[in-house]
Write a structure and sequence with these properties.
Largest sheet: 5 strands, mixed
Pfam family, one: DUF6492
InterPro entries: DUF6492 (IPR045499)
CATH superfamily: Spore Coat Polysaccharide Biosynthesis Protein SpsA, Chain A
CATH class: Alpha Beta
Number of domains: 1
Helix content: 25-40%
Shape: globular
Distance between the termini: 34 Å
């Protein structure tokens, strides 16, 4: 059964799990996050609330985006007090660094992942849909596509880890196994990393408990000691190899087309990028570090 058939089946089902959208962001991505919120409000249904997770000093800025269905969450309400953030002198104070005696120094991308995991213990919603702040929706999307008869869709890309891969997927997979106490395989054949995915909140909480039971210390300490981790890889391996898929079903379709690497796009390249989206893709993600002008993205999205 494909995802469209699953949506039709679930919409006729009496089982409907409460759902929240979760976005981790920071001040340099504020305007991109504003565009995400505008397109979410325009196109996305099936979610009960939207949480934006930010560093404490960014809360006041992001409060502009709050409304009846959207809340800004201070990371200090999610993460332990012993994790302290300062301006990094090694970057001439341009970047931030999170320090403690219990972890290695952590960067923003590490802490954004910790926020996304931690939020599961602080909200009542049964399903969490994760969307990056540099995503914009172009088409209607119903979050019930992540549900099927009370089960939650786990994104899984099959046979993805065999050959050479850019980035650290294999390291992240190996470190996920170590964190979760999985002896074999050391590296999973599956890749679970994508934008616009869903987790079951209870399973995320169980994942954290599993890490703590395995290592005898807090899950943030465990992950912060390795530094090389992926929350998507952790969750995917936990569901498949510890829970044996309980409460989930698999899906390989990617709902968001992402421009991960490369150069900033021209208008023509951007139009081609959108025109060649797969039928199931409803959103685009333009990685902010690539440098594509936000004004250009906004004009083309609105057009």
């Amino acid at each position: 059964m494909d995802d469209r058939a699953a949506l039709s089946q679930d919409m006729s089902s009496k089982v409907r799990l409460s759902t929240a959208i979760v976005t981790a962001s920071y001040a340099p991505d504020f305007e991109r996050c504003r565009l995400l919120c505008e397109t979410l409000d325009r196109y996305v249904t099936g979610a009960d609330h939207h949480y934006i997770l930010v560093e404490g000093r960014d809360v006041a800025l992001f409060r502009q985006l709050e409304g009846p269905g959207r809340t800004v969450v201070d990371e200090r309400d999610l993460l332990p007090r012993w994790l302290h953030v300062i301006d990094d002198p090694l970057s001439l104070f341009r970047r931030r660094i999170w320090l403690s005696w219990r972890t290695k120094p952590l960067r923003g991308w590490h802490v954004q992942q910790l926020r996304r995991i931690a939020i599961a213990a602080h909200v009542p919603h049964e399903v969490l849909v994760y969307i990056d702040s540099d995503v914009a929706f172009l088409k209607p999307f119903d979050c019930r596509r992540f549900q099927r008869n009370g089960h939650v869709r786990l994104f899984r890309r099959s046979d993805a880890m065999g050959g050479w891969l850019p980035g650290n997927q294999k390291v992240w997979s190996q470190n996920a196994a170590e964190a979760l106490g999985i002896s074999a395989p050391v590296i999973s054949p599956y890749d679970y990393i994508a934008t616009l995915i869903a987790w079951r909140s209870a399973s995320a909480r169980d994942m954290c408990a599993r890490i703590e039971d395995t290592h005898g210390r807090g899950w943030i300490e465990v992950l912060g000691t390795t530094r090389k981790f992926s929350e998507c890889m952790l969750y995917g391996r936990f569901v498949d190899e510890v829970l044996d898929g309980d409460g989930h079903f698999h899906g390989a379709e990617e709902f968001c087309r992402v421009h991960w690497l490369g150069h900033a796009m021209s208008d023509e390249e951007f139009h081609d990028f959108v025109a060649t989206m797969a039928p199931e893709q409803v959103a685009i993600g333009m990685q902010s570090f690539i440098g594509t002008d936000l004004g250009r993205i906004r004009r083309l999205v609105e057009a």
